[in-house]
């Protein structure tokens, strides 16, 4: 499995970095075969210094990488005897230029390395080579004008969305609810009946099932509205995967279920839970549910674990 490829366009930076590393590894072998004492990463600096002395700042502009990266590469070329660093006319700056050894390496690279690497890249890209390079140029220009983080801040894509029930999603309904029930309690017969047959036990009886999907994570939560024989609606089998904590998926889903209950009609809109579910109870209270002894007396015997009953004011 290729994780970076499977993640798609959002991992473009990582994919291009990996691609660059693979190409530079091959170019390094071509350079070594030509018996040149430099690395592919040095080639842009040799080209930038061809017949012209430049300051570090000018090299940053010419090559388009960070100042620390430029300083590090120039230090390596100086160590190799390919470049020299001298005090410029402005005493605050130093100028970098090629030594005769650096000029000789550049000349050999132009003849023995660059043409071979260019031919190899054209073989890889075929007829799309020029179009690909044009697209890279457009991407570089666009990024120079507006960085990724600025563009990301403008994204209007919803992080959370509501999905309607479909039989293909039934396993999510079961798995999400089984996760919290098995962790905190034990599965009761009434749980199994609903989770094993959500269409028959909920939808066919006039209820509804909604899911919350998180962009990049898929289905992370589920909840149901089950029609009671007396016309009420029970908010039931609501859970959110542990992997989605912090996304407020539960609050998003609960708000959607309350709105759906209003559309469906029914009185009362209630839920049955257990005091151990403190975080869930806090959420129910936040969105308007209130503890109700009458609901407990009327419906509480449905689950052995039920010791908390709540009602939404005004019903559905």
From TrEMBL:
<dbReference type="Pfam" id="PF12802">
    <property type="entry name" value="MarR_2"/>
</dbReference>
<dbReference type="InterPro" id="IPR000182">
    <property type="entry name" value="GNAT_dom"/>
</dbReference>
<dbReference type="GO" id="GO:0003677">
    <property type="term" value="F:DNA binding"/>
</dbReference>
<dbReference type="GO" id="GO:0006950">
    <property type="term" value="P:response to stress"/>
</dbReference>
<dbReference type="InterPro" id="IPR036388">
    <property type="entry name" value="WH-like_DNA-bd_sf"/>
</dbReference>
<feature type="domain" description="N-acetyltransferase">
    <location>
        <begin position="160"/>
        <end position="315"/>
    </location>
</feature>
<dbReference type="Pfam" id="PF00583">
    <property type="entry name" value="Acetyltransf_1"/>
</dbReference>
<dbReference type="InterPro" id="IPR039422">
    <property type="entry name" value="MarR/SlyA-like"/>
</dbReference>
<dbReference type="GO" id="GO:0016747">
    <property type="term" value="F:acyltransferase activity, transferring groups other than amino-acyl groups"/>
</dbReference>
<dbReference type="GO" id="GO:0003700">
    <property type="term" value="F:DNA-binding transcription factor activity"/>
</dbReference>
<keyword id="KW-0238">DNA-binding</keyword>
<dbReference type="InterPro" id="IPR016181">
    <property type="entry name" value="Acyl_CoA_acyltransferase"/>
</dbReference>
<dbReference type="InterPro" id="IPR000835">
    <property type="entry name" value="HTH_MarR-typ"/>
</dbReference>
<keyword id="KW-0808">Transferase</keyword>
<protein>
    <submittedName>
        <fullName>DNA-binding MarR family transcriptional regulator/GNAT superfamily N-acetyltransferase</fullName>
    </submittedName>
</protein>
<dbReference type="InterPro" id="IPR036390">
    <property type="entry name" value="WH_DNA-bd_sf"/>
</dbReference>
